[in-house]
Amino acid sequence: MCARVASIGLRGMEGYLVHVEVKAMTGVDSIVIVGLPDASVKESKERVAAALHSLGYSLASQKIIIHLSPAELKKNGPMFDLAMAISILVSLKELKTTIPEYTGFIGSLSLDGRVQPVEGMLPAVLAAKKQGLKKLYMPFDERIPVLEFKDLEIVYITSLEEVILHLKGQGTIPLFPKAKVVENQSNYTDFQQIVGHSFAKYALEVAAAGEHHVFMTGPPGCGKSLLAESFPSIMPPLSKEAQLEMISLYQLSGSSCEHTDIPPFRNPHHSASGVSIIGGGQYPRPGEVSLAHRGVLFLDEIAEFTKKTLDMLRQPLESGKVSISRTQATVTYPASFILIGAMNPCPCGYSGSNTHYCTCTPKQIIAYQNKLSGPLRDRFDINLSLRPVNLKSVTTRKEESSYSIRQRVDEARKRQYERYGSEIGNSRVSYDTLMKTSPLTADQQRTLQKFSYKKNWSNRTQIKIIRLARTISDIQGSTGISDQSIWEAVKLNSLVEKKDVIRKKRA
To answer: Which fold has domain 191-425?
Structure first.
């Protein structure tokens, strides 16, 4: 008898339906797995045989052929163990229950018949829902949130015996404790604790509201890292869908992730390789750009990263996803994040400072700033030139808290989601949609053309100004792009040119 049950295979974040077909024939004891299995799948036959033997089922004098369909896709991981065991029992007529096509099985088997969780279970569940399965048997894993879907019934089990009894209509599935949920308690520094930098705080508010990339330059100790590390405290909480995406990516990378609605914040060291930043490996795993999905990627001392690594960021910054091609497979991971880059103006760090003497030559300053290519610089929407805060000139007024700023950011995001009909910000929406929903007036177009001609802006820079102006107007509650927002957008995008810094040094 030929048996067939459903399971889920993964190719990056994308899942596909796998039919586990089993044919049992009289012959020499053997189990053969076909359908492009990798080493971990080939080892499944030993685990499955031991688990069935532990439950008293004999495979003596049986030649068992297991086919993982579709045959042209590479299969990896021990996720098919449970489906193989159930399909073998049906083929041997040890399990005489008819299993519907819309019922799936995922999980790894131990030698005594227990069902264990594996990496990538959450994206597998999301793929099962997308593929139209109605019921899914899987092991309970406290590392992922409790899942409740309208069209997918999830049956949590602990052993193969429990699955068999449940399919026969006997026995009950034990109740499992709910996964631990971490309250929204941010450990990030509150903006209220940062003295001064009022313009930089406003710029970061705009960046959080519209998901704009930020580039900061300034001497050591001026507050670049402090502002960047405090940035997640003003970002709105993640939606349920965004949380599931975040946890799925962390599972696929093998990293731990708490169940929280706080956006992720990644801060890799400048010695990190291109593979660790972008992702890769023999079986491509997510890199830092994907682990920062829906959150923040902070590159401190960005000029110290290799130029090759930095140029790799250009694709995910533009498309919001990263494609990794290997001989084994080509996978695509989401990578929609806010990039914050920080660097010193020169190798010694004090070019243009009023308190320290710069020891760098103009040639060294140009060489140092040229470590960032022009195309990468052009992808930053907001440019900030920071200076140390003079505590003597700071007023005694109370600084605004991150909570009050986050409320304005949240309201601005809601206006964008309502305007575009999906969770997409001003920085990522298509230009056609942006202009269709927020057209410029004739005066505003002339103003932009005037600035563009004077400053020799590229087309990308002009579009960035419009996107920034749209975000500023959202914060202000304006239905259209205001004239004031365009002036503020130009100011946020401006940065002291390196030739001006050099001129100051010579003077």
So the answer is: Rossmann fold (3.40.50)
Q: Which long-range contacts (CB under 8 A, 24 or more apart) does 496-501 make?
A: 496/352, 496/385, 498/365, 498/366, 498/369, 501/345, 501/346, 501/351, 501/352, 501/365
Tokens of 168: 């026969």
Burial (CB count <10 Å: 0-12, 13-18, 19+), residue 278: buried
Q: Which of 259, 263, 252 is nearest to 178 (CA)?
A: 259
CA distances from 134 to 66, 103, 288, 312 (A): 24, 6, 34, 41
Q: Delimit the domains of the chain by residue range.
A: 2-167, 191-425
CB neighbours of residue 339 within 10 Å = 23
CATH number for the domain running over 2-167: 3.30.230.10
Spatial separation of the C-alpha atoms in residues 310 and 339, rounded to whole Å: 12
pLDDT digits over 457-482, tens only? 888 889 999 999 999 999 999 999 99
Distances (CA, A) of 250 to 80, 280, 353, 441, 495: 21, 14, 42, 45, 36
What is the Cα–Cα distance from 150 to 87, expressed in whole angstroms? 27
Q: Model pTM?
A: 0.86
Distance, CA of 106 to CA of 108 (rounded, Å): 7
Q: Which two tokens stand for residue 193?
A: 């604790």
Question: Which pLDDT tens digit goes with each residue over 316-336?
Answer: 998 899 988 877 678 889 999
Structure tokens at 38: 């990798």
Neighbouring CB atoms inside 10 A of 360's CB total 20
Going from the C-alpha of 231 to that of each of 216, 378, 412, the distances in angstroms are: 13, 22, 16
Integer Cα distance of 491 and 455 in angstroms: 13
**Which structure tokens are listed for 441?**
């007036």
**Distances, alpha carbon 261 to alpha carbons 5, 105, 227, 248, in Å:** 36, 29, 21, 14
